[in-house]
Amino acid sequence: MARTRLEYSHKGLPLKQLPAAALRACLKEGISASQLRKDIVAGALVGVIALPLAMALSIAIGLPPQYGLYTAIIAGSITPLLGGSRLNVVGPTAAFVVILGPIVQVYGLPGLLVSGMMAGLILIGMALLRMGSLIEYIPFPVTTGFTSGIAIVIAGLQLKDTLGIRGDITATHFLDKMHEIWQMRGTFSWAEIAVSLLTIGILLLTHLPSKFQSWIPRSFLTIPGPVLALPAAALFAIFLEQVFPGVKIETLGERFSSVVNGIEIHGIPRSLPTFHLPWESVGTGASEFELSFETIRILFPSAVTIALLGAIESLLSAVVADGMSRNRHEPDSELLALGFSNFVAPFFGGIPATGAIARTASNFRFGGRTPISAIVHAITVLLSVLLLAPLLSYLPMSSMAALLLIVAWNMAEVEHFIHTLKVAPKSDMAVLIICFLLTVIFDMVIAVGVGVLLGALFFIRRMASLTEGAFLNSEQTKFHKMIVPKDVILYSINGPLFFGAAERAIGAIRSIGKEIKVVVFLLTDVVAADMTGLVAMEGVIEELKYHGIKALLVGARPHVKSLFIKGGLLPQEGVIAYATNIEQALEMVGGRYEKYKRRDRTDPVQIRPLHRQRTGAAKSKNQQG
Fold first, then answer.
1. What pLDDT is attached to residue 286?
2. Rounded to an integer, what distance in angstroms lies between the CA atom of residue 100 and that of residue 306?
3. Which segments in the chain show pLDDT lower than 50?
4. What is the CATH number of the domain that holds 504?
5. Structural domain contains residue 37
6. How far apart are CA 471 and CA 491, in angstroms?
7. Does 524 lie in the same domain as 472?
8. Fewer CB within 10 Å: C terminus or N terminus of the chain?
């Protein structure tokens, strides 16, 4: 199949073309039989990888493993059908653990499902408001900071099962949970630690650098790590229980049970997800949950957080897929599909879902190129539930926790974190560290809010420093071949004239002497202006008017001039006038501009500070010499 780009205008697709944008594009291009086979194989392999991850992530938030599987089945099939990315694989992800866990602990499964529904509606609203491209404006230090913080939280929460510690955790905050785990440290199990170490060892073995893989059979490396590690851990746990009397290693089937048709089933039910109203779900905290306006009001902030994090993670995953496949996703289409899947999934027991970067990257590496592979991934998980549910119940809890430890390590992006600390400006370093600490100490909502605010403030400060205003002295006007009357002064403004820089750029104009009758503002390099810039300019012109000094605005760009005119800075005899270029301006004030004969000195509009022009002149002489 020929690989082409999805080209969209800067405004995106029309609303009616958003659903299934990626799938329709692939069908329009045509999918060959060979590519279809590759998509099916890739989807099956990704489904095998997603199976243990979906279970582990459901367990991590305090729910039985089947709810993570239902999420991968429902959301994992709806999003590629309706979405705007060709490769994005959607399901439960580690980023949600720190948000969903406290909801389950306080409001139970019904509260979580209702929050997911609300998040789905918010995502649909974001898509209809065409907010997909706005996610690009979240600074890199913010995403890196809260992602690394989330990884620390996930890893910390897995210590209890990794070490085989017995006891219930009642705290809702991360630091308090760590304190409770520390208090129960004496109840650890050496056997479960051994199972955890075996799982981690096999997972690391399948991800060794290429230079260490020469002694490992190639067929061994082609099998996904969890497919090898978890069955091996289960067999090792059975061996330890048989060899050492009294050793007991907790499994999925022993910790979780559910009632299906009046029969209690340990582990994962061997059945399809069934339709039910989310707020009437049977599960943790169900008896305490009551759907009301007050409950919705309380859960709304959590729903907003789920929606924002889901949008960020899913669109980042789509960007990663674009970089690998040389295609372009439609962000609003992806948000619409993600919102619809998160709204529908709770009716079948599905928890909030988003794009999974690691599974999406694996999808591409295995040969997937169209949304069909992501759909096959969901079908593979469904078939696994129907065929392998009894066997999955034998998986040790310690091996599932060890798997999440590796997920947390990969999510932490330690290299990016350290690299940012080494090379980034101090402002970006501060944003990174603050977001990281706030995520661990408080929560992700506070971290992202503070991080975006700090990033915006630092950006404004940097942009303001680029805006400068300066008088052109006699030496500069002579250099530019300008004859300027003595009662006229030229003032050049360079850079955006916005709220962070307007007063700084224009303030110096207030220091001119009484002998000046005309101030010529050179605005050619004012690339943009906002209301604060307009107000600052109005204030200066009012002061000049009070002292009988005329203002002449030269070379203002169309959008800047339009703002000034709409704001009331209209041409007025003896007060304010506009000129297209410096030549016209000097003629208006009784001066003269002698054009250069050289090619590099013929532009009558470009007026810059003297030191810059000298640099340019020196370069020109060197080139000629």
1. 46
2. 8
3. 1-10, 285-286, 596-625
4. 3.30.750.24
5. yes
6. 4
7. yes
8. C
Residue 501, CA atoms < 13 Å, CB-side half-sphere? 24
pLDDT given at position 613: 39
Backbone angles phi, psi at 559, to 5 degrees: -70, -30
Q: Does one domain contain both 410 and 534?
A: no
Q: Which residues make beta-bridge pairs with 518?
A: 488, 550
Query: Do 444 and 474 belong to one domain?
Result: no
Note the pLDDT of residue 443.
78
DSSP string, 237-255: HHHHHHHSTT----BHHHH
For residue 462, the model assigns a pLDDT of 79
By the 8 A CB rule, do 347 and 276 touch?
Answer: yes
Co-location of 404 and 484 in the same domain? no
- For the stretch 466-506, pLDDT in tens is 788 888 877 777 666 788 888 888 888 888 888 767 777 77
Is the same domain home to 408 and 556? no
- 359 and 473 belong to one structural domain: no
Q: Judge whether 2 lies within some domain.
A: no
Ranges of H-type helices in 213-330: 218-221, 225-243, 252-255, 293-325
pLDDT for residue 215: 66
Phi, psi of 577 (to 5 degrees): -150, 160
Measured CA to CA, the distance from residue 215 to residue 563 in angstroms comes to 70
**pLDDT for res 265:** 76
Say if residue 483 is in the same domain as residue 442: no
**In whole angstroms, what is the distance from residue 55 CA to residue 252 CA?**
10
Of 407, 351, 394, residue with least CA distance to 73: 351
**DSSP reduced 3-state for 354:** strand
Q: Are residues 399 and 493 in the same domain?
A: no
Print the SS3 string covering 436-456: HHHHHHCCHHHHHHHHHHHHH
Structure tokens at 464: 């303001």
Question: What pLDDT was estimated at residue 225?
Answer: 82
Q: At what angle do helices 293-325 and 97-128 cross, to 10 degrees?
A: 80
Q: Is residue 10 assigned to a domain?
A: no
Domain span at residue 528 reads 468-624
